[in-house]
Every structure is written in structure tokens, then in C-alpha cells.
Design goal:
The protein is mainly β and 176 residues long. The chain has no helices and 16 strands. It has strands at residues 2-5, 10-13, 23-24, 27-30, 34-43, 55-63, 67-70, 73-82, 87-91, 97-102, 105-110, 128-135, 137-146, 152-155, 157-159, 168-172. Strands 1, 5, 7, 8, 10, 11 and 13 form a seven-stranded antiparallel beta sheet that branches. The protein has a six-stranded antiparallel beta sheet with strand order 3-15-6-12-9-16, with no helix packed on it.
């Protein structure tokens, strides 16, 4: 379910081609000089019913959180995961995303504006994994901060799989 759209960002395809069939791969249109996101709520149900199905664990990995320069000015992609019951793992050394928390939202924002063509799970410097446990509904945001005067179409990817990172950092729900 699409919950919210901000900053003029629009959805051109809810599940674009390329990448992984197991992933949700929205294609977003990002206007010039804009900063916003599209928020999705993903609900899990018992098969054939409208009864919520609590999942033991829901790993979700935003893949290809990269960027690109248009006319010398950067567009930075970002993803946010509502994480109330788990933790988030990411590439701490050599990564190209800055990780932060605001309330129960975990955010990974690109900081290099380098484009990584295609959707590739070997480019761990531009991905992170957030894991929730014991929930039946998950909210995620896919967005971009475009500082350039060009509009852009960006393929994004949320893969429902857990990954390990060589120089792993961890953000927990509670302060350590």
C-alpha cells in the first residue's frame, strides 16, 4: 500500500524490471531541486485470508542506494525502514551511505553521488539490511535528494533477504 508521497517524487512503476524477482523494485521520478520519498506499507496475511500473519523475522535490504551527478550537481538516493523490533547492519568502512536513526526510522543516505549500474548485491558499500521481528506489517520509504536542475528516473530495490557486511556496523532499536 502506498501511504505517502512527498517532495514532488512520483512513482512511475511499482515493480520495475531488472534486478531480482524476489525484490520490490519501484521506479521513481525525481524532479529537479527536490527532496522527498514514497512510503510503502507491506502487510503480511495468512494465505487466502485478510488475517494478519506475524512473521518471526522480516529482513529487508535496500540495494543500490547510490546517486549520480547531473550537470555536475549531485542526486543522492536514500531509503528508510521503520524498525521497531530489531536491528540494522551496514558496511561501516568504505561505505557510501550515511546511516542514521530518527525515532524508529533507520535511514541510509548515499553520500558519494556515484552511480552503480544495475542492481547488484556485491556492491555492499551502497546497501544496508534492516531486520524486524514479530510483526505483520512493515513500512519503508524510497527517496532522493536532488540538488541538480535535472529531473531523473531512478530504479530502486528492496530485497527481502539478510546480508552480512565485511566491516559491519550495527544500529540497534535501543541504545547500546
Amino acid at each position: 500500500t502506498i501511504i505517502n508521497m512527498t517532495g514532488g517524487i512520483s512513482l512511475t512503476d511499482i515493480d520495475g524490471s531488472g534486478g531480482f524477482t524476489e525484490a520490490l523494485q519501484p521506479v521513481i521520478s525525481v524532479p529537479a531541486f527536490s527532496n522527498g520519498y514514497i512510503e510503502f506499507r507491506i502487510d503480511f496475511y495468512q494465505a487466502g485470508t485478510l488475517n494478519p500473519s506475524v512473521q518471526v523475522e522480516i529482513p529487508i535490504t535496500p540495494i543500490d542506494v547510490d546517486g549520480q551527478k547531473y550537470g555536475g550537481l549531485p542526486l543522492y538516493e536514500f531509503d528508510e525502514v521503520h524498525n521497531t523490533t530489531g536491528y540494522t547492519m551496514y558496511q561501516m568502512l568504505g561505505g557510501e551511505i550515511t546511516m542514521s536513526k530518527s525515532g524508529s526510522w533507520v535511514r541510509g543516505k548515499n553520500n558519494a553521488a556515484s552511480n552503480y549500474p544495475g542492481i547488484d548485491t556485491t556492491s555492499k558499500e551502497v546497501m544496508f539490511t534492516s531486520v524486524n521481528a514479530g510483526i505483520s506489517s512493515l513500512s519503508v520509504r524510497v527517496g532522493a535528494d536532488n540538488t541538480s536542475n535535472a529531473s531523473a528516473s531512478r530504479l530502486r530495490s528492496f530485497y527481502f533477504k539478510k546480508f552480512e557486511y565485511e566491516h559491519q556496523g550495527i544500529l540497534s532499536v535501543n541504545s547500546l
